[in-house]
Amino acid sequence: MKHIEFQDKKGTFIIHNPENYSGLYLPLAGEKGLKSSITPNLGGDSKTDQNHFLLEPVSIENLHNNRNTRNFWCRVYKVSDEKNELSRGINPQLLGCWSVCGNSAEQEFEKFTEKQEESVLEAGFMWQKLSRRSEKYGLQAEVTSFVTISGDMEVEYVEITNISDKDVEVVPIGVIPVYGRSADNLRDHRHVTSLLHRIQTTEYGVEVKPVLSFDERGHQKNNTTYFVYGSSENGEKPESFYPTVEDFIGEGGTFLNPEAVRTNKPGKTAGTKIQGKEAVGGLRFSRKTLKPKEAAGYILLSGTTKTSDSIALLTSGCKTKLQVQKMLEEVKEHWIQKVNVAFETGNSDVDNYLKWICFQPILRRIYGCSFLPYHDYGKGGRGWRDLWQDCLALLIMEPSDVRQMIVDNYGGVRIDGTNATIIGSSQGEFIADRNNITRVWMDHSFWPFVTTKLYLDQTGDFDILFEKIPYFKDFQSKRGTDHDQEWNSSYGNWQKTDNAEVYYGTVLEHILLQNLCAFFDVGEHNEMRLHGADWNDAMDMAWEKGESVAFTCAYAGNLKEIAHVLRELERVQGINKIELAEEMECLFAYGKQLYESPKEKLQILKQYTDLSAHNLSGNKVVLSLEKVCRNLEEKADWLMENIRKNEWIQDGDKGWFNGYYDNHGRKVEYSAVPDEAGNNACAKNGVRMMLTGQVFAIMSGTATDQQIQEICKGADAYLYDRNAGGYRLNTDFKEEKFDLGRMFGFAYGEKENGAVFSHMAVMYANALYKTGHAREGYKVLQTLLDTAMDFDRSKMYPGIPEYFDNQGRGLYAYLTGAASWYMLTMITEVFGVKGQLGDMVIAPALMPEQYDQEGKASLEMEFAGKKFAIHIFNKEKKEWNEAQIREAFCDGITLLAETGRKARLMRSEIEKLELEKVHEINIILK
Ligand code: G1P
């Protein structure tokens, strides 16, 4: 049975009885302001940040008992003789109390029985509409939920229709419990903080303004007001209010069977003030008789504001059905427009899943890595590596903002090549770690250049490399190994020179510094030290002796690519010298003897970090670009060769690279083949293979073509598990391995310990495509998507999850870096649309099955500010590497076809194209 049924090409889908599946939720948010999550029963929560939760914070395990949440009740009366009974003043008989979202004791009890009501959820980007039908009560309800674009309010529009052939009388009661404080208070002073509440009812709703806030920031005067307002579809006020939990649920009551609803308790009037109670926005509307087929609509608005006098104005624009409908249309349109990438392959369901995947990076820009039920860690914001990787997708969807974002983000780099890890709420704002905990993630310096390289490819804008920005400065120094005792907060968070001036360096200087410092920061096997962890956050217990070969490969690739970019810079712009901080000169030391000696490398690193431990001199040194390039290339070549020589593991016709050393300085991975001493480590624990090391060995060019093929065989044999969704992150080590990381404490097959972890799997695909192994890459991408799309197993709404568990369930929906990489890989590798110094180059690597029946596949996207619809025609459905380009056109004009498989649209031509028009590119393969 098909569970997710798409309604259009914009990701809108319906699903029947979604409440029968666990862990489902949708994000609802504005561009700023409220960030909500909503389940099929209207559970979930809503907040603006860690310290301002409108609804009580929920984690995934709360969702199945999350009842103190949004609800809308109808006390339903049956009018048996409609003509006479009412007019004769006879009180109709109470039939029962119905929750339009299935959140009542009765509905809960009837769930999974033949009495279970039919419900249908329709959803799109940042909205959902839940329909529920009750034969017993003769009612049908639709609840539409969304957050306004500005993020000021969450809106629920409830429409109740009489589907019986008799009159039905209802008393509608909308209720949104107001938590109104910091997530910290969930179990830290939960009761005490309710004593701070000042609650009042106004004509249209309930307002809660705590006097103080108690959280990690201390005790502060609170300025935030939380509100729940409401009206009928015509803007009529509620009749009365239930402003406190005890008032609403009653003694011994619950939110599933609240006294106010059960006993028809009269509500409080407007103007009531109450102190020191748990609050509820309970809104009771006047009794209403619905004729057969007649409908009545009600609006609930909830939000937070710093200016309580603005609530009336804020809510006045959303008091009637017409206003709500208009707002909903705006919301839908806004988010659809944001996702300005669309794919058309042979399968429209795939295309719709891809739409959601493209939406995910936007969600992570808004939610960071916190604030959805699975993502109950962190206090908001994004990590450094996430920030940079999300820029990859934003470069494609929101390119105009990204240039400045890139430049500003480099301001987080420290002069020792590490970076600030707490990222402030505004762009370019970095915060010193409050606890002065030394944390260095050794992969962090790798990502900025990856993003900058994509930017350079897309735009050809070399000038960005010469933008000047400062360096971040705090107490930490020497790559997390020391503290700068001379630094204090009055110095400020920007690196200074001896003249007490803020030091500015170019973006290029930042890039070189990050990658060169990494080169020298090695462990005893001459691979880069793992420090706190690398991309895999959970490899965090090998601070002393751990090494990451995986990221040594990655940095080697960067050094090579930086040299490549600099050579292009010289070729295109004739620049042949660059200026750097004089302290950095020692980082260009070279020579085999140095390369081979971890000790000498560490000495050079020490020399540099000593020189830059507090202030810089402010003096610059000028270096020849040619020399810099040769230096980088030599270092990269040495790194790669060293890894090929020392880290390769042969396993019959399979092979892979050892990706790590543990805190005992031992190689982490091994094959079934005994080592030279005849020891067979595998005999006890089985083969040990990890995906991360392979991904970066391939991506960087460290792995030879032969090795890539053997890696693929190894991955297929030891990591691939179709049932779990594809390639696992590692084999089962069957060991707790406290000398490597907490990941080994996780159950095998979960999260970083051997789950099918989408992010690394997609990067594996990307690396395979990049090196000409498109068929293998396709298998990786397709297995992931097939698993996500198989709702019976994945049990998730459309999109790609962070990982699939052993049963193939998709976990940690929406907020994953995998989405950016998936989208990027689809565009730049599968459709093969890449920037090359600002030109658009198209070299498709689509599989025959990715074309529609006519042999056509299409991609809509923006490039250089112009809109394109790119169609690839492969009528004979030839294999990707057998099809050659016969003709290529843009708006009917021939494109430059370079080799047999690549077409090029020059930047100069793109610049001449009209702005608003969609330009058609047709690539005809033969
Ligand atoms: C998450 C984190 C990312 C980290 C990864 C592996 O990945 O966001 O920073 O590198 O786990 O530990 P994501 O959910 O983005 O796929």
Automatic annotation (TrEMBL):
Keywords for the protein's UniProt record, in alphabetical order: Glycosyltransferase, Transferase
Glycosyl hydrolase 94 catalytic domain mapped to chain residues: 347-473, 628-832
Annotated Glycosyl hydrolase 94 supersandwich domain residues: 122-311
CDD domains membership: GH94N_LBP_like (cd11749)
Source superkingdom: Bacteria
InterPro entries, alphabetized: 6-hairpin_glycosidase_sf, 6hp_glycosidase-like_sf, Gal_mutarotase_sf_dom, GH65_N, GH94_catalytic, GH94_Enzymes, Glyco_hydrolase_94_b-supersand
Name this polypeptide is given: Cellobiose phosphorylase
Protein's organism: Blautia acetigignens
